[in-house]
Amino acid sequence: MSVLSEKKMTRTYHWVLYGSSIYEVFKVIHFFALFKYASANICGVTTTILALIYLSMNILDCGATQSIAPFLYLFQNKQKPLKQFLIKYYLFAVVPIIIIGAAVATFFIKRSFSLAPHFMIIIGLIALEAMRSFMRMFLHITFHTPKVIILELASFFLYMGLLWFPFVCFPSFQMSVNSLLIPHFIDSIIVFSGFCIFTFLYYKQCAPGGDSLPTNFFKKLMISRVFNCLLRVGRNMFSTGNLITPVFALKFGVAYAGVFYVASTLATALSNIIKCVVYYAGNIVLAYTKSDTLTSRREVFKALSRRIVSIVFPVLTIIGFNYSNIVLLAGQKNLASNLFTFTLVFISIVFFEFFFLLYEQFYIIEELAPKFFIFKAIELVLFYGLTLSTSVSSPLSLLIGVIGIKIFSFIIVSSDAYFTWKIRLSARMKPLFFISCLVFAGLSFLVIRYIAFYYMS
User: Hey, which of 105, 199, 312, 399 would disulfide with 345, CB 3.0 to 4.6 Å?
Assistant: First the structure.
């Protein structure tokens, strides 16, 4: 990787870190304000529709977003192959699927919810968000991160202003599904339009001409997209709690499921800040070093893993130190103590996923997504077996079982990666940082033990 590209990557890292931090903080504030001031029915319908919109968007993306990085070297800074990639292999190949799929999803949403907004708002949100995801990754990976962050934050604050201004200024104003989703629709239009302009300007800056994409490109791209789509959907099931929440409802009742959903939302908000950094920065650096020697790629992998360890180790240390406190809190009937317990344990699950994400990115860049999918399929089969097990008698035992599955799956993935490329994680850290983490974890043990005895009293 050139010195210039390394500087750009570092700048991208900082922009994503600060931008995602600001976004997630205000999103959590917005989330709690919404649940406080909107009626339970309106809030429930709106959040359910949004969940279905983003679920549809992830599926209809068809793995296109994750398939940019492996083939960047073919069209980077060259107009002819870039035009082929964007027009022939995305606009003509993926966008029609997005539009048709969005129409089908909208039909089912309209049939399921009488309060659902106009047909065009739902279909527009699904289609725009799917294309927005693809273009966001494309712009990040071509080093347009500052423009992306500024535009999305500005549009997000406009969205919040459009949503909350009528409520604050007009006491008689009643929130509705339309008043919550129309600002979101406007936000999507603004950001998508801006992304189109940024992409066109990047195209104009590229060198004219260039070689056409290889004859076998379509086959390789389709394989990559299919398995990337499956990996993305599977990853979102665990990392967002969308898969575990229904299991909670079936095994332990809707009260526990509701508490876990809030806990997973809090944990996801915290992890999204780090995930954005790992997701975008990891894709960028691995994409730009694909043509380097294997030795160079190993060093890049180690550097990325050290960065993840420096973020994840303090959190996992705190959770490890407080295992006995978590068990104490989990035994209480108080919902607040359960919320605290579930949040801590689910954070460890989500943070563990960061290491899988790094390995997943490496497999995708090496065009071995089908192989990585086999490992994730084994993980899903084990989880299905866990849900059927009679030995799982409490919410905490289910979550600990998920952690066990993750550890087992990680051993398989890391072993295969080592034997294939001789790559492994690097947990090297400065002694002062290591000692500081242990001291802070010890202090957290005392604080959380106090909280545990408070709920027991």
Answer: 399
Q: pLDDT digits over 32-74, tens only?
A: 787 777 776 777 777 778 878 887 888 899 889 988 988 888 8
Structure tokens at 397: 């035992």
Q: Which two tokens stand for residue 422?
A: 């001789």
- What's the burial of 299, exposed, middle or buried (CB within 10 Å: 0-12/13-18/19+)? middle
Residue 78 pairs with which residues in a beta bridge?
A: 207
Q: How far apart are CA 131 and CA 110, in angstroms?
A: 22
Is residue 224 within 8 A of residue 367, CB to CB? The reply is: yes
Asked whether residue 15 carries a pLDDT value surpassing 70, the answer given is yes
**Cα–Cα distance, 356 to 362 (Å, whole number):** 10
**What are the φ and ψ backbone dihedral angles of 263, each rounded to 5 degrees?**
-60, -45
Give the integer Cα–Cα distance in Å for 425 and 413.
12
Residues 6+ apart with CB under 8 A from 40: none
Q: What is the pLDDT of residue 199?
A: 95
Task: Determine the longest span between alpha carbons in the chain, in angstroms.
Answer: 74
d(CA 246, CA 430): 42
The tokens describing 332, both together, are 């209480």
| φ, ψ of residue 78 in degrees (nearest 5) | -130, 120
Helix axes 119-141, 145-169, angle to 10 degrees: 150
**Tokens for 366?**
């090496």
| CB of 165 closer than 8 Å to CB of 104 | no
pLDDT digits (tens, 9 = 90+) for 124-133: 999 999 999 9
